[in-house]
Amino acid sequence: MPLELRQQLRLTQQLVMTPQLQQAIKLLQLSRLELLDAINQEMEENPCLEDVPEEMPAEGDAGVESTILPTEPPPLKPVTVEETARADIDWSSYLGEYNTPGPVYSEREERELPEYENFLARRESLNEHLMWQLLLSLPGSREERIGSAIIGNLNKDGYLQATVDEIATLAEADKSEVESVLSKMQSFDPPGVCARDLRECLLIQVRKLALHDSIVVRIIENYLKHLENKNYKAISRALGVGVDDVFSAVEIIIRMEPKPGREFSDEEPQYISPDIFVYKVGDEFVIALNDDGLPKLRISSFYKEVLNNRAEECPSHTREYIQNKLRSAVWLIRSIHQRQRTIYKVVESIIRFQYDFLEKGITHLKPMVLRDVAEDIGMHESTVSRVTTNKYAHTPQGIFELKFFFNSSISRFDGEAIASASVKEKIRQIIGSEDSTKPYSDKKMVDILKSSNINIARRTIAKYRQMLGVLPSKQRKKIRGGQSICKRR
Q1: Which residue, among 474, 469, 488, has the nearest Cα to 424 in the 3D structure?
Q2: Looking at residue 80, what is its pLDDT?
């Protein structure tokens, strides 16, 4: 290996390992909320960093910059980005250059942000709902203790996860007392609650419908497996009744609730805070980064004064401490700026590739890999990968993780390939428009997609269907407009 090349390689390796570059890489892959935590932690540890108050204009504020894309996407051209690091720093000028309040590109206008009144208040939990009914029944102290033990051992779907013996031990009661309280609580709302399995859950609901001696009870007690597989002829033969009678009974069963506790789910919704906003303004797209809540950092004027004008008064170790903290502060601000610029360039490139998707929707999503964007903006694939991890964009088509825009291609019989996500959407649309009494098989969907010039194997359709959470055609089949109990479970 030539000497010059070896020296260049050693220099590259040395640059990669510097703490400053490690910090820049780390910040690049953080989400907006993770970045906020990292900034707050650094501000606690570094006295040279301070937050500019909202009402206070900062020196050197770069203002708000955003890119407007023309109606027709411009041709894709590689962009070379050069970033250099200065070994020797002239603090008096360098600090002034980076005394800016925050990201170069930012979102400061009020546009389509979530309304606080749309946030959900905490719902009443299943446990609270059942305890209210238990107390309303005016129980004695022993009954209340047993009932509380039963409620405490329900899962989120409302099923009892403990045996009668375990409840008796826990509540220091007799098994007969537990059975009595459990029987009472199985009459509580929602219907089917406190059951120990699906069969008991459905039978509790049957009792409320006064269908004690019907075919419905016999099917639930003995033929749930046949019911799940929609093997109605087997049920008909086993019970010695007509298929129409079985259909009538099944119509009643499939309208029951196999998960009584689901309406009381106390799982808190997870709200996504977009890192990027992409707006449609007229015939153009505008990109803006979301800096809401991020501190607008600057270097402390006090420590600048100490270093620039009063350095001789400081002991050497104090001066060295201040220099290290100033250097760290400057690198943090610089890394944040570089992070925002890099995110901006990546999103700008994604929009150029996925222009049709933003205009027309998911069926127009194009196949794209990390290399496409990396070559477009002149960056390494690993950088693009870090930028698109755990970051979300608010677009005219909805909120998407940046990773969403990168997907494999499905070939066509003629013409350009189509994105796998677009094919999944087409499969979803096909299933959504099918006759529920005669659902399409995977093989039939192959033929339907073939007519749309999409070349896809049956096993690939089966895989995409499973990813969409859709059952096979046999289990999707409905009778007389009924709903499949298998799907609801």
Answers
A1: 469
A2: 30
